[in-house]
Specification:
By secondary structure, this protein is mainly α. Helices cover about 70% and strands about 0% of the residues.
Length: about 200
């Protein structure tokens, strides 16, 4: 009996309390886990979710657009193909000309509206050309020096805040400040202007 150890009786816990303890422990652990998730991780997850939703939305829109656009399956005529080829060639030629002549390109963009106001009959010739910028430059440079001077003057007059729009000082000297005059001064001034009637 000396070798036998004494065992103390364990405290007996009712089974209901045992069932409640693990659940409470789990809830406490879950709360701790929820509060321990770093904010940047949550933001990253939210961003991924939003991107995925955006991709889905774009995909659905694309599918709807493809379903609605049955015209792309229509057969093209030779005339249609010819027009698209001409438009493509025009774009290429105009870009190349603009790249080779940047100063003239800028000048045409600035002066062409005024030129077409003076010569509206040339608008159709420019529009039907294969290179509209080159055609416009040829027509604009074919002007006589007198016509070019008139074109530049018309451009200057249209400029806002240009000195030509401001009255000259001589005209301003005749201006009279009527508000600062007394009644007697005004009557005298008026009598003088009427010629002393």
């Amino acid at each position: 009996m000396e070798n036998q150890e004494t065992v103390e009786p364990e405290e007996v816990v009712p089974s209901e309390e045992i069932a409640e303890q693990p659940q409470e422990a789990l809830e406490v652990e879950q709360e701790q886990e929820e509060t321990q998730v770093p904010l940047h991780a949550l933001q990253k997850e939210r961003r991924k979710r939003q991107e995925a939703e955006e991709r889905i939305r774009l995909y659905e829109e694309q599918k709807l657009a493809e379903a609605d656009d049955s015209s792309r399956y229509d057969s093209a005529t030779k005339e249609d193909l010819g027009k698209t080829q001409e438009e493509t060639l025009r774009i290429i030629e105009e870009r190349k000309w603009a790249r080779d002549n940047p100063e003239l390109f800028q000048k045409i963009n600035d002066e062409l509206p005024g030129f077409l106001k003076r010569s509206p009959n040339l608008a159709s010739a420019i529009e039907s050309a294969t290179n509209r910028y080159e055609e416009a430059w040829e027509l604009m440079s074919a002007l006589t020096p007198k016509q070019q001077k008139q074109l530049s003057q018309a451009k200057k007059q249209e400029a806002p805040g240009s000195p030509s729009g401001i009255p000259k000082a001589a005209a301003m000297s005749d201006a009279v400040d009527l508000m600062s005059m007394s009644d007697a001064e005004f009557n005298a001034w008026r009598k003088e202007k009427r010629g002393g009637r």
